[in-house]
């Protein structure tokens, strides 16, 4: 497992001085969510902000941040041939983060 941070946004793997793998995380947008939706799920997004039993509640007001990121991964098609092309794939994701208040018995 590898955790990306603000300081660690790019990973490059070289074998015999040839780039074999390149992983890049780009923050597209990050903002505070002033007023979360009334329901515990944001429509069609699957972002849970509270449990139905009251076990936890994810941040209120200025605590709740939504971040959109783009991950780009490039991998050499033929690792034994340093002249082979890199194949690239990109995915975008959003996540919410905040301090959590829990009521664990």
Give the structure's gist in a few sentences.
With 105 residues, the chain is mainly beta. It has strands at residues 10-15, 18-32, 56-58, 65-76, 86-97, 100-102. The strands form 2 sheets. Strands 1-2-4-5 form a 4-stranded antiparallel sheet, with no helix packed on it.
Tally of strands: 6
Shape: elongated
Unreliable runs, pLDDT <50, ≥5 residues? 39-44
User: From the structure provided, what is the oligomeric state, counting identical versus distinct chains?
Assistant: single chain
Strand order of the largest sheet: 1-2-4-5
Helix content: under 10%
* Residue-averaged pLDDT: 79
Series of secondary-structure elements, N-terminal to C-terminal: EEEEEE
Rg calculated over all Cα atoms: 19 Å
Largest β-sheet summary = 4 strands, antiparallel
Structure annotation, total helices: 0
Write the layout of secondary structure elements.
Layout: E1 10-15, E2 18-32, E3 56-58, E4 65-76, E5 86-97, E6 100-102
Description:
The structure is a single chain. This protein is mainly β and 105 residues long. 0% of the residues lie in helices and 49% in strands. It has strands at 10-15, 18-32, 56-58, 65-76, 86-97, 100-102. Strands 1-2-4-5 form a four-stranded antiparallel sheet, with no helix packed on it. It has a two-stranded antiparallel ribbon with strand order 3-6. β1 (10-15) and β2 (18-32) form a beta hairpin. The two termini are 31 Å apart.
């Amino acid at each position: 497992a590898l955790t990306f941070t603000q300081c660690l946004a790019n990973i490059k793997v070289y074998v015999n001085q040839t780039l074999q793998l390149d992983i890049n995380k780009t923050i597209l947008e990050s903002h505070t969510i002033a007023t979360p939706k009334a329901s515990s799920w944001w429509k069609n997004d699957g972002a849970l902000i509270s449990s139905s039993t009251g076990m936890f509640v994810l941040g209120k007001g200025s605590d709740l941040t939504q971040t959109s990121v783009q991950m780009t991964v490039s991998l050499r098609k033929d690792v034994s041939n340093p002249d082979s092309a890199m194949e690239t794939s990109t995915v975008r994701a959003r996540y919410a983060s905040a301090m959590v208040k829990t009521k664990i018995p």
